[in-house]
C-alpha cells in the first residue's frame, strides 16, 4: 500500500466527516449564517475533489494488484463525495426557495395593493432561471472535473506505454551488443584459421624441400 495514498486517504476521511457535520448544521440555519456555512462547505468540497484527484493519480502509478484495490476504494470515496454534493445542492435549493418566498412576502407587504399576478409570475420565472443557471454552472464544473480525470488517466497509460517501449529498446540494444560481440569472435576465429593454414602449408613445404634434398644427396653419392 502506498504511504502517499494513505496520507491523502486520511485527509479525505477527516474532511468528509467535517463536511457532513457542516451540512447538518447548515440545514438548521437561515439567512446570512446559512449562506456563510454553505460557502465553507463548497470550499471544502473543492479540497475533497483535489484530494480524490491526487489519490487517483497515485493509485494509477501502483502495480496492477495494488492498483485494483486502491481504485475500488477510490470509487467509494467518489460516491461519498457525490452524496455530499447532493446534500449541498438540496440545502442550497432550499435556501434559494426560502429567499424567493421571503422576497415575495416582503414585496407583497410593502406594496400589496399594486403588485399584480403578472409581476409575481415574472418574479417566479426569474427565480427559476437562477436555479437553472446554477444547475448549468454545476454541471459544467462536473464535466470539467471528469475531463481532467480522463486526462490524468490517459497520461498514466501513455507513461506505462513509454516504459514498455524503453524496456523493449533496452532489450534490443542488448541483443545488438551480443550479436556484435559474436561477430567479432567469429572474425577472430576466421583470421586464426587462415593464419594456421599458412603456417601448416609453410611447414609442409619445408618438409617437402628437406626430403627432396635428402634424396638428392643420396642419389648423388
Describe what you observe in this structure.
By secondary structure, the protein is mainly alpha-helical. The protein is built from four helices and no strands. The chain is rod-shaped, with a radius of gyration of 42 Å. The relative contact order is 0.06.
Brief rundown of the structure:
With 221 residues, the chain is an all-alpha fold. The protein is built from 4 helices and no strands. α1 packs antiparallel against α2 and α2 (31-60) runs antiparallel to α3.
Q: Span between N and C termini?
A: 102 Å
How big a fraction of the residues is strand? under 5%
The backbone outline, from C-alpha atoms, is rod-shaped
Quaternary structure of the protein: single chain
Radius of gyration in whole Å, from Cα? 42 Å
The helical percent reads over 70%
Mean pLDDT comes to: 81
- Helix and strand content put the structural class at mainly alpha
Unreliable stretches (pLDDT < 50, length at least 5) are none
What's the story with the biggest beta sheet? none
Q: How many helical stretches?
A: 4
Quantity of strands, as a count: 0
> How would you spell out the order of helices and strands?
HHHH
Amino acid at each position: 500500500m502506498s504511504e502517499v495514498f494513505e496520507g491523502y486517504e486520511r485527509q479525505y476521511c477527516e474532511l468528509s466527516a467535517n463536511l457532513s457535520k457542516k451540512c447538518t448544521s447548515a440545514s438548521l440555519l437561515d439567512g446570512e449564517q446559512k449562506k456563510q456555512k454553505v460557502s465553507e462547505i463548497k470550499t471544502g468540497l473543492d479540497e475533497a475533489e483535489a484530494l480524490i484527484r491526487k489519490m487517483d493519480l497515485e493509485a494509477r502509478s501502483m502495480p496492477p494488484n495494488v492498483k485494483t484495490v486502491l481504485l475500488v476504494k477510490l470509487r467509494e470515496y467518489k460516491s461519498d463525495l457525490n452524496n455530499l454534493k447532493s446534500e449541498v445542492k438540496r440545502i442550497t435549493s432550499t435556501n434559494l426557495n426560502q429567499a424567493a418566498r421571503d422576497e415575495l412576502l416582503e414585496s407583497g407587504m410593502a406594496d400589496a395593493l399594486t403588485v399584480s399576478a403578472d409581476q409575481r409570475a415574472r418574479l417566479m420565472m426569474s427565480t427559476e432561471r437562477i436555479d437553472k443557471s446554477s444547475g448549468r454552472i454545476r454541471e459544467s464544473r462536473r464535466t470539467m472535473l471528469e475531463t481532467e480525470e480522463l486526462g490524468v488517466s490517459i497520461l498514466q497509460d501513455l507513461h506505462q506505454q513509454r516504459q514498455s517501449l524503453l524496456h523493449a529498446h533496452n532489450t534490443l540494444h542488448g541483443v545488438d551488443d551480443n550479436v556484435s560481440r559474436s561477430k567479432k569472435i567469429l572474425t577472430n576465429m576466421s583470421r586464426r584459421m587462415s593464419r594456421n593454414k599458412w603456417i601448416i602449408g609453410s611447414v609442409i613445404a619445408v618438409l617437402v624441400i628437406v626430403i627432396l634434398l635428402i634424396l638428392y644427396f643420396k642419389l648423388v653419392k
